[in-house]
Amino acid sequence: MSASALLEIDMISELQLRRWARENWVSQKNRQNDWHPIILEEMEAKDKEMNHEAIAG
Description:
Elements: H1 3-23, H2 37-56
């Protein structure tokens, strides 16, 4: 398997994790520290978006 094919698989997996994180978002106090770092990162990004929307009103 070529390096580009491996990269594509990794990219697809990352996108799947990010989508899962957005669809299954939970508040920070309810997150598990052992979740995949990409999931935690995406949930934090959604936190920031939600805060920005709340401020912009």
